[in-house]
Design goal:
Transferase(Phosphotransferase), domain 1; 378 residues; two-stranded parallel ribbon; ATP binding; signal; protein kinase activity; ATP-binding; Phosphorylase Kinase, domain 1; Protein_kinase_ATP_BS; 2 domains; 13% strand; single chain
């Protein structure tokens, strides 16, 4: 019912919208939909298209800081001098030639992300500062995280990120922060939220090495006894059991997180077509090595060079074993997010107590958490 409602709204969005104004807001089908499912006082502020266009210097290509499957992200400066990231959804760009179905999906993701992000509060999740629903585009305004994505840090997409900044201790700290964000979504929100797109490209790194998980466009509320939905996500991170069964559970996020752990251990990409055919997927490559007792062949050379008298490699082995459990083919063999957090804390505490000099600490575990949130989409 919720999907049908959003699809019908999307068709109206495509056909008729007016210039943003207080009166137009009352008629905008997207805003009306959001306000039917969430009290206006709980929704983030509404920006005009002109405000966000001005903040990004008319979406200047030089301001573009990211380009994903669902939208382009621009650096913006608001009227109050706040620096933000502005996402312009692709299928609602004025030059877009997308089908009605693609536009409907874009509108659904837009509403979904607003409703979810306006209901959660955690130091390791991005904050939504506002949105804009306009005939010229659907836009979302987020925290600006200036230090790149985890993918850029791991894979060296930007040269400044690959100069030994990711020590083993920092990698474990980052992994723990990500796991804590997932634990919050699964256990502290009612009903639980499944992110569905945990990837190293959707994890943002602040200058103090704290992380923020973003991109909630595919997220779903998990309503029991089960949630049947077409599998969506990023190749290389998508839970194969979910792909086969169409049954979404929290363990799908655990699988994706396991792939991120493997990236942290190996420095390799989740999918790399330059590898041999049977090893294109990182899970296939590393699981095979672990099963043959050859993990050392795929450990990131940066970690091998770090030294630490063997303690680093012991820790790498422990994290690789945890990742191995997270990417188990059967979801029932995977740990839940609470177990993952507990294990990473144990590994992190061993590093801090070993005195092996295995790198400075990262951002730690972030600030205190709010109480359990309740999320409702009607």
């Amino acid at each position: 019912m919720c999907l049908l409602a959003v699809l019908s709204i999307a068709s109206v969005i495509v056909r008729s919208r007016k210039k943003s104004s207080p009166a137009a807001e009352e008629e905008d089908p997207t805003i009306l939909y959001l306000r039917r499912h969430r009290a206006a006082s709980l929704l983030p502020p509404v920006f005009t298209y002109e405000e966000l266009e001005s903040s990004t210097n008319r979406f200047d290509p030089k301001r573009k800081i990211g380009d994903g499957g669902f939208g382009s992200v621009y650096l913006g400066q608001l009227y109050d001098n706040r620096i933000v990231a502005v996402k312009h959804l692709h299928n609602h760009h004025p030059t877009a030639t997308a089908s009605a179905g693609a536009r409907a999906f874009s509108a659904k993701s837009f509403c979904n992300e607003i409703l979810i992000l306006s209901s959660i509060n955690h130091p390791n999740l991005v904050k939504l500062h506002g949105y804009c629903s306009d005939p010229r585009g659907l836009l979302l305004v987020y925290d600006y995280v200036p230090n790149g994505t985890l993918a850029e840090h791991i894979h060296g997409n930007k040269s400044l990120f690959r100069n030994g900044s990711l020590t083993w201790q920092i990698r474990v700290d980052l992994a723990l922060q990500i796991a804590m964000a997932i634990e919050y979504l699964h256990f502290s929100v009612v009903p639980p939220i499944v992110h569905r797109d945990i990837t190293s490209s959707n994890i943002f790194v602040e200058k103090d090495m704290r992380i923020k998980v973003g991109d909630f466009g595919l997220s779903r509320l998990l309503v029991y006894p089960e949630t049947n939905t077409g599998p969506q996500g990023t190749p290389g991170y998508l839970d194969p059991e979910y792909h086969r069964s169409f049954r979404l559970t929290e363990k799908s996020d655990v699988y994706s997180f396991g792939v991120v752990l493997l990236e942290l251990v190996t420095g390799m990409k989740a999918v790399d077509w330059r590898r041999e055919r049977r090893e294109v997927g990182l899970v296939d490559l590393v699981v095979g090595k672990i099963q043959m007792g050859l993990l050392e062949e795929v450990v990131d050379k940066v970690l091998v060079a770090e030294g630490g008298g063997g303690e680093v490699l012991d820790g790498v082995g422990a994290v690789a074993e945890l990742a191995f459990r997270c990417v188990a083919a059967d979801k029932d063999d995977r740990p839940d997010a609470r177990e993952v957090v507990a294990e990473l804390r144990r590994i992190r505490n061993q590093i801090r107590g070993c005195g092996c000099g295995c790198g400075g600490g990262g951002g730690g575990e972030g600030g205190s958490l709010k109480g359990a949130s309740e999320v409702g989409l009607g």
